[in-house]
């Protein structure tokens, strides 16, 4: 009985493990291998070059710019997503008429295809016919149309669009946790004379600590590796250079310059940065009882 | 159940205003999309803009169906996403059941491997994935897409389904076995019905991921008749003259049905969320 049940267990998990290993883990390892070659993206010819790709990157100013843009983009979007996400979760956790409707609507930006999100915002931010410029001009904040996709503002536009698209993830994660906080805690705090702000700091926040630990971790990883939002925003403008983050740069090297080896090296660098920063993050903030 | 906030109190006013701001800022771009998609070409570029179309028209939708392969893209998206859901849920449920109900060597290691791969982002694997797919001759097929999405959705599906299976008491299964049911019957008649909400939530997350994906289609698919909606719509935008009316009508058709669906099911999703679903 014991023996056969062990076998059944292994048999049931085998397809999952097989797929994950062959289609996720193996490609990542193969990518490390590829990064040691000079390889054309379409043709099979390849030449072993050792760490030449990495040495090239270290001296490549575009690479360092992509790290800088990537950091600016991910740090600023994460901070705003988390803050706006928590505030929004506090609001929709209150009881009011139409609450379910509001909760549903808040999800919208996160569940639509990124392509649609980008198209909507490119239309709203269009410098000639866009509604945003019209509204800003009619209430007198600006006199001339702002070139949202121009080199001075494209990073701001990208950050605003990304916050709009991804803050619902924070709302939902935090809301799911808030619903499990025992009301007794709030009543006790009230009896002790704590106002709403002190109740938030001393009751809500400590309860949210674990979920925020995970949410910040996941959002950081996903914002740092975000490709489609950034890439689609660069399409058709003249200012793509000013939001060329690390994922976009890796894609360009592989599929526009056809340097698959160099592209893989960029992906490996991304991976190393992620592993390094998550290790530091765990060391700094993880407590024994978590996860 | 806490009492509803009074609309006329200071606190109530504050909450209603905040909720209104939140709703408008998330929903307004969609309203603008719908409004634009029903405007005739000339009215789209009117300055100052009209909030609602003066001359309501369906011409944008007609152009969309006549001049593009919108329906083909739509069919491809539906096929690829559904195939991904079926595969992911079948493989994932079996795996999650195994992780919660059997003890075998290396089980905890497998669980940590799954959690680790949950953090992979598409851009990290897409380059080597593309080279490998080309090598085995599957480039430019739907099968390549389905494989990529299934592999990509499996870690979070397993994680989510495992949490749902863990919440079903073992005693129920034992009771069925003692009553003479086979293990297979116990799974079908006892476990699956109880795990159904979890399976539905996981299916929705998987479907959205496959439906919304851009990067894998862009890289793995080259022929126009195999493209899915994301890339199809993105290519409309990359045309030399941007037909905003047509693009908005296409965007509207692929989002509004999903959004209406979401308003109704959001409460089930919040339940699934607590266990850590969805990536992107």
Account of the protein in words:
- The complex is a heterodimer of chains A (291) and B (280).
- Chain A is mainly α and 291 residues long.
- Chain A is 73% helix and 2% strand.
- Chain B has 280 residues and is an all-alpha fold.
- Chain B has a single domain, classed as MetI-like fold (Orthogonal Bundle).
- The interface between A and B is large, with 99 and 99 residues.
Features:
heterodimer, A: 291 residues, mainly alpha, MetI-like fold, 2 strands, B: 280 residues, globular, disordered C terminus
- For the termini of chain B, the CA-CA separation is 33 Å
Return the string of H and E elements of chain B. Answer: HHHHHHHHHHHH
- The helix tally of chain A amounts to 12
| Mean pLDDT rating of chain B | 87
User: Secondary-structure element sequence of chain A?
Assistant: HEEHHHHHHHHHHH
In short:
The complex is a heterodimer of chains A (291) and B (280). Chain A has helices at residues 2-34, 52-58, 61-93, 99-111, 114-124, 131-138, 154-178, 183-191, 196-224, 228-234, 246-255, 260-285; strands at residues 37-39, 46-48. Chain A has 291 residues and is mainly α.
Would you spell out the secondary-structure blueprint of this structure?
The complex is a heterodimer of chains A (291) and B (280).
Chain A: H1 2-34, E1 37-39, E2 46-48, H2 52-58, H3 61-93, H4 99-111, H5 114-124, H6 131-138, H7 154-178, H8 183-191, H9 196-224, H10 228-234, H11 246-255, H12 260-285
Antiparallel strand pairs in A: 1-2
Helix pairs in contact in A: 1-12, 3-7, 3-9, 3-11, 4-7, 5-10, 7-9, 9-12, 11-12
Chain B: H1 10-37, H2 41-44, H3 59-67, H4 70-101, H5 107-117, H6 122-135, H7 142-166, H8 170-178, H9 183-212, H10 215-220, H11 229-237, H12 244-273
Helix pairs in contact in B: 1-12, 3-12, 4-7, 4-9, 5-7, 7-9, 8-9, 11-12
């Amino acid at each position: 009985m014991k023996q056969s049940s062990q076998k059944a267990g292994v048999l049931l998990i085998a397809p999952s493990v097989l797929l994950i290993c062959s289609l996720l883990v193996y490609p990542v390892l193969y990518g490390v291998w590829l990064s040691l070659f000079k390889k054309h993206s379409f043709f099979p010819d390849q030449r072993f070059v050792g760490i030449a790709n990495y040495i090239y990157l270290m001296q490549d100013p575009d690479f360092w710019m992509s790290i800088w843009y990537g950091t600016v983009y991910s740090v600023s979007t994460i901070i705003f997503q988390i803050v706006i996400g928590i505030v929004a979760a506090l609001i929709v956790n209150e009881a009011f008429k139409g609450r379910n409707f509001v909760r549903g609507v808040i999800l919208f930006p996160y569940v639509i295809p990124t392509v649609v999100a980008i198209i909507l915002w490119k239309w709203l931010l269009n410098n000639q016919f866009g509604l945003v410029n019209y509204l800003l001009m009619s209430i007198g904040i600006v006199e001339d149309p702002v070139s949202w996709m121009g080199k001075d503002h494209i990073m701001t536009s990208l950050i605003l669009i990304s916050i709009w698209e991804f803050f619902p993830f924070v709302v939902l994660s935090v809301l799911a946790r808030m619903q499990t906080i025992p009301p007794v805690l709030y009543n006790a705090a009230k009896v002790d004379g704590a106002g709403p702000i002190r109740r938030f700091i001393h009751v809500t926040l400590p309860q949210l600590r674990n979920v925020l630990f995970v949410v910040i971790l996941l959002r950081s990883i996903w914002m740092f590796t975000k490709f489609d939002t950034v890439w689609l925003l660069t399409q058709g403008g003249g200012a793509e250079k000013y939001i060329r983050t690390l994922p976009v740069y890796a894609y360009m090297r592989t599929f526009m310059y056809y340097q698959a080896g160099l592209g893989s090296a960029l992906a490996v660098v991304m991976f190393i940065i992620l592993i390094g920063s998550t290790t530091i993050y765990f060391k700094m903030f993880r407590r024994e009882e978590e996860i | 159940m806490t009492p509803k906030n009074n609309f006329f109190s200071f606190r109530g006013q504050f909450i209603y205003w905040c909720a209104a701001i939140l709703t408008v800022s998330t929903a307004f771009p969609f309203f603008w999309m719908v409004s634009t998609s029903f405007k005739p070409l000339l009215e789209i570029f009117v300055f100052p803009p009209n909030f609602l179309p003066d001359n309501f028209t369906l011409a944008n939708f007609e152009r969309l169906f006549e001049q593009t392969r919108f329906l083909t893209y739509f069919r491809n998206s539906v096929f690829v996403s559904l195939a991904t859901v079926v595969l992911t849920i079948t493989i994932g449920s079996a795996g999650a059941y195994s992780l919660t109900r059997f003890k075998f060597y290396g089980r905890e290691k497998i669980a940590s491997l799954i959690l680790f791969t949950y953090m992979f982002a598409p851009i990290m694997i897409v380059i080597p994935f593309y080279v490998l797919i080309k090598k085995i001759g599957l480039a430019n097929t739907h099968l390549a897409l389905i494989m990529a999405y299934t592999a990509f959705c499996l870690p979070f599906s397993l994680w989510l389904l495992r949490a749902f299976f863990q919440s079903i008491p073992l005693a129920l299964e034992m009771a069925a076995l003692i009553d003479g049911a086979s293990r297979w019957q116990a799974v079908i008649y006892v476990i699956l019905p109880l795990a159904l909400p979890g399976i539905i939530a996981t299916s929705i997350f998987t479907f959205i991921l496959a439906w919304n994906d851009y990067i894998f289609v862009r890289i793995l698919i080259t022929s126009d008749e195999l493209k899915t909606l994301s890339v199809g719509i993105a290519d409309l935008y990359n045309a030399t003259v941007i037909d905003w009316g047509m693009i908005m009508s296409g965007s509207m058709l692929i989002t509004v049905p999903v959004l209406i669906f979401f308003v109704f099911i959001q409460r089930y999703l919040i339940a699934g969320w607590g266990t850590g679903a969805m990536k992107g």
